[in-house]
Sequence to fold (546 residues):
Amino acid sequence: MTMTKKMISWLSILTVFLTLLWSCHNEDFAKGETEPQRNNANFFKHVNSVTAKSGVDYISILEAYNREKDFLSTMPDQKGMPIWDKMQVVDAENATGLMIPLSDDNETMSSVLFATLDDENSVIGIKDYDNKLLENIVYNEKIDKNYREQMFYTFMYMDNKTFGNEDFTNIPKDLFVGRKYNNEYGRIRIKNFTTSTATAQQNGKMIWLQSCGVYWQCSHHSEGKCDNCMEKCHVNICYDVVISVPDGDATPQIPNTSGGGDGGGGTPGPQPPKDPCTQSGTAFYRISQQCSENDNTPPITTCERLKKMLENPTVSLPPGTVSIKDALLDLRNTVDLPNTTHEEGYNFKYDPATGGMYAEKVTIWSPKDNTVIYTKTPKTFGGAHFHMENLQGMFSYDDISVLYNYFFWFTATPFSGINNASYPQPVHMLVANGQVYALVIEPEDINYFRQTYNDILNGDKKLRVKFEDDFKADFSKLNSTVGGWNTDYTTLEKTFLKFVTKIDNSPKHYNLKVSLYRANQDITGWEKLTISQNGNDYTIIPNPCN
Fold:
């Protein structure tokens, strides 16, 4: 069989597979067609300065194409909004390719939208690949290795161009062989992404262009200990970025022009490495910011840090203080006593001299409403209090503000390194309605939370007033409909998580990226609470900490 016949045969098989994969994936978001989680009316909004170097307004061209074809309703990504100023334009001899990153959190890509235009700037093909579709492609060993490698590289390229990310993970074992610095978890570090100045190649609706970057080998040409060397350890790497818009009848040739791969199905198989450092969310190729750059030690998880807070102290406690667990038990035993007239609470402190954590009783209350006032010190990393019957059995908006403050208060030097469960992360705990809750920010979401909440607290005063009014409205309505704030704790959890995740896309809710944990009844462990949506129904999903 000639090489041409082999290529045609491979392309035909790939086309059939991608068509089936795309069709199956479309079934999963049929509900999104009728209930998109974004406002499609704003999808094409952009400033006038966002145009290609050629002066062509490709965004308006796509908008006109959508009015004709309504492709937005059939995209797998029904949450992400385009970041138009990061759109990449690739010019071939007789066509132009567009790569548009979409994001639903302004920190990671939710998908990449590919479009191909002919030499008269008419759209001839468009296709959206979300992270799940990418995952299905790169982990399927039945798909040609070069295509899987090029698709993975294209997403890495776009992630770098959009958000500056240089660290990637969960790369299948048979991709980027010899380029990964950690083969167990499939990690690679690439910086200085560039594209060739040559005209891109085209076959049908597919367009590809060589891109090069600098990858890190970890040590001197893989010899000796990982030493994060710079000159000898950073080596050029070249692959193809591909605007993957399959033709209706046949998928065009995607040649291996870069020499990055060796073709074939790939051995060993491309099973997911399941990196424990994977960033939360759908961007499975992202590494958590808390992972060490110079070793392969997984970061300490929030579950581990919270569990450590409940353990019996291994060092002597300062006089007049108790363990965090004993403080929580005291609050739970005190909240419903008939003589309770004001909130009780504890400051959580860290001793950098011993690495120990302890709780110190709050002794100051607000004269306005008898709520606790925590003590601001460099050692104060958190606190806990209870809500009585006249307050909702859940965190208030002021409680979120307290958590925000802890990030500025807690500056104590770690006793034995940050990547240690004994070094706490800021946390605010609440005892209410028979439950013990912890409000925290996952490490990878800290920057987002601090910036977003700072805008609410210290930006436009109207925004802060609206935030507080929206929160009070949700819980006031709940109080009048369920017969009291402390009637059903799962209803309270749903109300709170809807407000702080904006899962319903309500303009009166806010995506703060806060995480809610609930302790078990004997206060020895935790489970992270997440919320899922099915139409107008919402369900709390407990995710036990191991």
